């Protein structure tokens, strides 16, 4: 009789978390909130502060800042650390939980809470409003972009600054990066994360559909999810028009939140606009 094979004890339990369509990748942010900052480029965080600080000095004075989609507060923390008053809002409680942890770890406090950039009303104004990291692209209904610009305007003093940091889908179209492992990441805590992207663009409708197959391997658990969200493909002329209609005067365009990186339509990864509340 054959000897029974011993279990290695190393097999993993795979759990399919399901698939989500629309809802601005909320399930995906819940799954990845703990790792979002580390996956999504520490370089981005390092270069954003000098960019924003330089901008605020040139076009300020800026001492108070509202980030309407602050996520994990990664880009705001360096501002708060250097004495700016930063107030943060975000739709995702999971991202805000990480933001609170990041603030505690840095020994800082900031007023952060759940909020929707389309309808937020804080009853006060700021010197600058930020909407960074593709958050504006999630607004696929023209009415939602209008509402968000209205929110920004209501929270800015006259002459205050609005900074929008969008994905530049024009450069993505020129260099489509499909189908690929978007991320293959191993965390210091041993967690392994792989994200596969399946993107599709409908140019007539100006919609980019971002789909992610995500695997998170933690201990003996593998969590797998499929998430899909439509994103609006803004071009510089269309964004300029929307800003002007919303009561803003676009004054600067950049290709990334990085000092000196000018915007070029076919190569810039980002479309960054700086506008003054007219
Ligand atoms: C790609 S993350 C960027 C987070 C952060 N701004 C950054 O650059 O690291 C997009 C964020 O937008 C948030 N978001 C999407 N729609 C929103 C809305 N209507 N109001 C507020 N936050 C929203 C998501 O919850 C998510 O945290």
| Beta-strand percentage range | 25-35%
Question: Can you count the beta strands?
Answer: 12
Poorly predicted runs: none
Major pleated sheet? 7 strands, mixed
Strand order of the largest sheet: 4-3-2-5-6-12-11
CATH class: Alpha Beta
Q: Overall mean pLDDT score?
A: 90
Bound molecules: S-adenosylmethionine
What coarse outline follows from CA principal-axis ratios? globular
**Helical coverage, percent range:** 25-40%
Tally of contiguous helical segments: 8
What is the radius of gyration computed over CA atoms, rounded to a whole number of angstroms? 20 Å
What structural class is derived from the secondary structure elements?
Answer: alpha/beta
**CATH fold-type name:** Rossmann fold
> What is the CATH homologous superfamily assignment?
Vaccinia Virus protein VP39
What's the end-to-end separation, in Å?
Answer: 86 Å
Describe the structure concisely.
By secondary structure, this protein is of the alpha/beta class. It has helices at 26-32, 36-39, 42-59, 77-81, 93-105, 142-154, 169-174, 236-245, and strands at 13-21, 64-67, 85-90, 112-114, 126-131, 156-167, 180-186, 192-202, 207-218, 221-232, 248-254, 270-277.
């Amino acid at each position: 009789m054959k000897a029974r094979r011993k279990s290695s004890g190393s097999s993993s339990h795979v759990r399919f978390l399901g698939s989500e369509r629309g809802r601005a990748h909320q399930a995906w942010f819940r799954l990845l909130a703990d790792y979002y900052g580390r996956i999504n480029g520490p370089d981005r965080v390092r270069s954003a502060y000098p960019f924003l600080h330089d901008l605020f000095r040139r076009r300020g004075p800026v001492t108070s800042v509202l980030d309407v989609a602050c996520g994990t507060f990664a880009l705001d923390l360096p501002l708060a650390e250097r004495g700016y008053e930063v107030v943060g809002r975000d739709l995702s409680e999971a991202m805000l939980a990480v933001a609170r942890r990041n603030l505690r770890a840095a020994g800082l406090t900031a007023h952060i809470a759940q909020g929707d950039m389309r309808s937020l009303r804080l009853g006060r104004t700021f010197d600058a409003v930020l909407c960074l990291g593709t958050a504006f692209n999630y607004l696929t209904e023209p009415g939602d972009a209008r509402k968000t610009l209205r929110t920004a305007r209501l929270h800015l003093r006259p002459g205050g600054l609005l900074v929008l940091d969008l994905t530049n889908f024009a450069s993505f179209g020129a260099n489509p990066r499909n189908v690929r492992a978007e991320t293959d990441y191993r965390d210091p805590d041993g967690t392994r994360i792989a994200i596969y992207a399946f993107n599709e663009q409908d140019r007539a409708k100006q919609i980019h559909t971002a789909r992610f197959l995500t695997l998170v391997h933690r201990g003996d658990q593998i969590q797998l999810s499929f998430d899909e969200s439509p994103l609006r493909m803004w071009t510089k002329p269309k964004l300029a028009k929307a800003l002007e209609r919303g009561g803003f005067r676009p004054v600067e365009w950049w290709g990334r939140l990085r000092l000196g990186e000018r915007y070029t339509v076919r190569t810039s990864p980002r479309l960054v606009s700086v506008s003054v509340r007219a």
